[in-house]
Amino acid sequence: MSMSPENVDVVVIGAGQAGLSAAYHLRRRGYTPPEERGERTFVVLDADAEPGGAWQHRWASLHMATVNGIHELPGFPVPPADPNAQARDVLPRYFAAYEDRFDLRVRRPVRVQAVRRVDADPQGRLLVETDHGSWSTRYVINATGTWTQPYWPYVAGRESFDGVQLHTHDYVSRDAFAGKRVVIVGGGVSATQLLNEIADVAADVFWVTRREPDWQRGEWTTASRIEALDGVEQRVREGLPPGSVISVTGDRWTPWVQSAQEKGVLVHHPMFTSIEPDGVRMPDGTLHAADVILWATGFRPAIAHLAPLGLRTPAGGLRVENGRSIDEPRLFLIGYGPSQSTIGANRAGRDAVRAIARDEAAEPVPVG
Ligand SMILES: Cc1cc2nc3c(=O)[nH]c(=O)nc-3n(C[C@H](O)[C@H](O)[C@H](O)COP(=O)(O)OP(=O)(O)OC[C@H]3O[C@@H](n4cnc5c(N)ncnc54)[C@H](O)[C@@H]3O)c2cc1C
Q1: pTM beyond 0.85
Q2: Which of 295, 322, 348 lies at the terminal end of a domain, its last residue?
Q3: Of all residues in the chain, what percent are helix, strand and coil, respectively (each to 5)?
Q4: C-beta of 115 in contact with ligand 1 (< 6 A)
Q5: 187: domain range?
Q6: Confidence of residue 248 (pLDDT cuts 50, 70, 90)
Q7: Whether residues 167 and 69 fall in one domain
Q8: Tally of structural domains, the chain
Q9: Segment 24-65, tens digit of pLDDT
Q10: Which end of the chain is more exposed for a tag (fewer CB within 10 A), N or C?
Q11: How high is the pLDDT of residue 218?
Q12: 238, part of any domain
């Protein structure tokens, strides 16, 4: 089946917080879905079957009270939610209502497989190839998040383990850990949250981190937030992989960290050196017996489909400034690096659209 690509001005890839923010701002500035035949057009493509971005996949115990201050999408407040409601129910419903309200017409499930240049003209068009047709476009706003790229560091002997290994990506609930001896790997927010909840049912929890936690008990001030984001901003400008948020924010002393401490399980051990059938081998030579290894080792940007653009630096990242690729200015990366938070994603969506509109000198039009 060979179909000629559909022409649009902007393709937004991904309908999570970042992609929907971009779509909202495109609408505001008078861009329309192609079927409305506006002067300027956009389309949002999303690989998931349902609205909600990564929120629809997150584990059941992530409640509205335990998410870290999510930020609503632009122009439409999150309806008041019970703090005990599951984030994976509340937020996808909100995203669905949002798409309806602004008539964003997300196409799904449509998975982007490759983005490439149509020709050598730097002002020319980009071709977005998917499992459901292709689009020829002037700009791509990539908002694909990280959820689909769980990161598992390689440790010798990993394949030899007789127990179960899983990543937070595949965590469902603590029930699967009842009576088990569990090793939890990682120093981030998810690791401490899951340590605290699994400790209630497991026979043993053993927490390992690559580095010593550096607990930040003070208020998370605006100044410290800005400083942290500046660090990530600089990394992505230089084309380094964005790195984990923890590497710049330090380890926050959250209520679940406090709770884990009260249960006596907030005891961190150094990273093991290898994995054996019955457990993990510690640097001091002892074997720590385990039935389950839970890798809470984070996620990486989902950008494999951008490979044909050849933007990857030797350091393994893309050079991005203010959400725009330095080496391919027709490409924006939002929810990437410093904008990898709900508030950051909102702003990055707005800024990407502003930059495109500036390029095209499009006039803003009010929302209908
Ligand atoms: C467990 C967890 C908890 C978090 N909690 C918070 C929190 O409390 N507060 C906060 O600010 N941040 C939190 N974050 C960070 C969070 O990732 C961001 O805040 C934000 O939700 C991410 O939005 P996004 O739009 O960038 O990505 P996503 O929500 O991941 O959306 C990306 C979309 O792109 C689609 N997609 C991916 N690849 C393709 C492709 N090739 N083709 C087409 N579509 C594709 C996906 O289907 C998805 O719908 C959390 C992250 C994790 C992992």
Answers
A1: yes
A2: 295
A3: 30, 20, 50
A4: no
A5: 158-214+250-295
A6: low
A7: no
A8: 2
A9: 999 999 999 999 988 999 999 999 999 999 999 999 888 888
A10: N
A11: 74
A12: no
